[in-house]
Specification:
about 55% helix; two-stranded antiparallel ribbon; single chain; alpha/beta; about 15% strand; Rossmann fold
């Protein structure tokens, strides 16, 4: 049985990532792994370099837990199908608690490279364990959805770069990381409806490949 596919919603701040992951999770009936860094900020206030490794480890733990949970449920369904019908093992994902015959899928509101990029950008360095983890884990994703900066900047205490030139710099940094690592990605741009439609189409293509 094929392992659950991880979809990373990825890009600079204030590009609609959280809104998009919620839409994708609902559309595909897939588990959503939220961004832990935002949760940690809300709990303790501003973050520093010392927070990067705990953030990375907890984000990775939650993501791996979601993948293991859905994989376990799919294995259980496969065992039932094999024992009851004598047919081939099927692949599945979950819509709520109801399994269906589609590849398993996990939607991620951030991923390993993002923690590394923010650490380098904000603090000029990155903990070695975070960097090693990012280099290894970035290959886990079946697809990156790279959100463009063609959206109005929404002010937020957790956001750093409202200036258009800074936003363009971040866009180049985030895209460059994907290109250097030769990772599969599609550009997502336009208004909210266009972003949602393009993302759904891209994920659908990935699931069918």
């Amino acid at each position: 049985m094929r392992a659950p596919r991880r979809i990373a919603v990825y890009g600079p701040e204030s590009t609609g990532k959280t809104r998009l992951v919620e839409k994708l999770a609902t559309h595909f009936g897939a588990p959503l792994v939220a961004e832990y860094a935002r949760e940690r900020w809300d709990q303790q206030g501003a973050l520093g370099l010392e927070d990067m490794l705990p953030i990375a480890k907890e984000q990775w733990r939650r993501e791996d837990e979601a993948v293991a949970r859905i994989a376990g449920k799919c294995h259980l369904l496969s065992d039932i199908v094999e024992a009851g019908q004598g047919g081939p093992v099927v692949e599945c994902h979950l819509i709520g608690d109801i399994p269906s015959a589609h590849p398993p899928l996990v939607i991620c509101d951030t991923e390993a490279l993002t923690t590394m990029l923010w650490s380098d950008l904000l603090y000029g360095t990155c903990p070695d364990e975070v960097r090693r983890g990012a280099e290894a884990r970035c290959k886990n994703y079946a697809l990156y959805l790279l959100l463009d900066i063609d959206t109005p900047f929404a002010p937020d205490p957790q956001r750093c770069f409202p200036d258009p030139a800074d936003r363009e710099k971040c866009r180049r940094i985030w895209r460059g990381a994907l290109e250097r690592h030769q990772l599969p990605f599609v550009d997502i741009r336009g208004d909210w409806a266009a972003r949602e439609a393009a993302a759904i189409a891209a994920v659908t293509r990935t699931l069918s490949s």
